[in-house]
Each structure stands twice: as C-alpha cells, then as structure tokens.
C-alpha cells in the first residue's frame, strides 16, 4: 500500500475534451502548485501512448497503470493539481483514493460540445483509443451515461465548460479550492 502524505490535492475529473488539461495549466499559474496529468504520467512510465497500452494489454492493463499513477501522485508531500483521465473514476478504489486525498472539481460539457472538441484535437484522435464500436457522439453519450454517477460520487463541485472561458473558470475553481483548504484548516 502507500502512505498518503498530503490530503489537499486539487483533482480535475471529467470526460475527455471537458477542459481538464488546459484548466490544470491555468490553475498551475494561478495557484503556483505543481501539476500532474495522470494520463501523461502513465504514458511516460510505460514509454507508450494510451492507445498502445490498450492495444497491448487492454483496458484492464491501462486501468492498473492509471491506479499506480494516482497512488504515486497522492503520496507526494506537496499538494498538486492533478488532471485525471476521464475513466479514472471507474474503479471504486480510485474514487476512494481521490476523495480521501483532496478536493475534486468535475468539469462537464454536453456530448455535442465534447465531440466537437475531441474531433478538433489531433492528439486525442491519435493517442486515445475508441472505447466502444459506436460512433463518436454515441460513444460519448454512452460513456457519460455510465460515468456520471461515479463523477458525482467523487466531485466536491461541478463546473460546466460548454460556454465559459477556462480562464474565468480557473478563477472560480481556484477560489473554491482555496476556501475548502481554509475551511479544513479551521476544522483541524
């Protein structure tokens, strides 16, 4: 097992294309906290893209690597901004680790907006595998239907990214996180 050295991490969850990676970079500048993207960490440790991991070992292998990445991040003594992969919340053990280790912002967007963002990002198309045999929009709808209860169980706050600028959203998320940290210090 691991030793949880810090329980004040700021986690970003949501479906791919919801703005987690971009928001994390903006929050990094606003809050001055170190930033970790667990998908990038998994790829760095494996020296493979997520699509290659899926092709070689399947989704189970990827999810095992993702859990190890989450454990690695939360064991760090300094609070981090942690951008999680869209399916990180599927495992009960991951949800428990996330909830016990910090504050979580759930970024939402409509399936149509997500599809447009994903289609416009060549890296997503190349590095992220299709999760079903459905078309892109139908897959997004199906995955959102499956994952929404898990996102809901894990989130401290929900932010819709359909029309808001991520710069404005970062100000709100940073403020909400800082209030949470202050409230926790007053209780302890």
Describe this structure in words.
The chain contains eight helices and five strands, in the order E-H-E-H-H-E-H-E-H-H-H-E-H. By secondary structure, the protein is an alpha/beta fold. The protein has helices at residues 20-31, 38-46, 50-74, 92-100, 111-119, 122-127, 136-154, 166-187; strands at residues 9-13, 35-37, 81-83, 102-108, 157-160. The mean pLDDT is 90. The chain has one domain (9-180): Rossmann fold, CATH 3.40.50.
Name of the top-level CATH class: Alpha Beta
Give the helix/strand class. alpha/beta
The CATH homologous superfamily is named P-loop containing nucleotide triphosphate hydrolases
Uncertain spans, ≥5 residues at pLDDT below 50?
Answer: none
Side-by-side strand order of the widest sheet: 2-3-1-4-5
Mean pLDDT: 90
Helix tally equals: 8
Instruction: State the CATH topology.
Output: Rossmann fold
Strand content: 5-15%
CA-atom Rg in angstroms = 16 Å
C-alpha end-to-end distance: 25 Å
Number of strands: 5
Shape: globular
CATH architect. name? 3-Layer(aba) Sandwich
**What string, H for helix and E for strand, traces the elements in order?**
EHEHHEHEHHHEH
């Amino acid at each position: 097992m691991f030793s949880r050295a810090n329980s004040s991490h700021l986690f970003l969850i949501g479906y791919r294309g919801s703005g987690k990676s971009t928001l994390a970079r903006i929050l990094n500048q606003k809050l001055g906290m170190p930033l970790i993207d667990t998908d990038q960490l998994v790829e760095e440790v494996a020296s493979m893209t997520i699509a290659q991991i899926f092709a070689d070992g399947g989704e189970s292998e990827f999810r095992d690597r993702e859990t190890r990445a989450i454990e690695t991040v939360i064991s760090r003594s300094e609070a981090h901004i942690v951008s999680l992969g869209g399916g990180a919340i599927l495992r009960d053990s991951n949800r428990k680790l996330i909830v016990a280790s910090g504050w979580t912002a759930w970024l939402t967007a409509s399936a149509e907006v997500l599809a447009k963002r994903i289609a416009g990002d060549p890296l997503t198309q190349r590095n992220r595998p299709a999760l079903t045999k459905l078309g892109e929009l139908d897959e997004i709808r199906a995955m959102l239907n499956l994952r929404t209860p898990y996102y809901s169980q894990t989130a401290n706050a929900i932010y819709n990214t359909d029309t808001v600028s991520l710069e404005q959203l970062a100000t709100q998320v940073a403020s909400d996180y800082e209030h949470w940290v202050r409230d926790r210090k007053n209780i302890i």
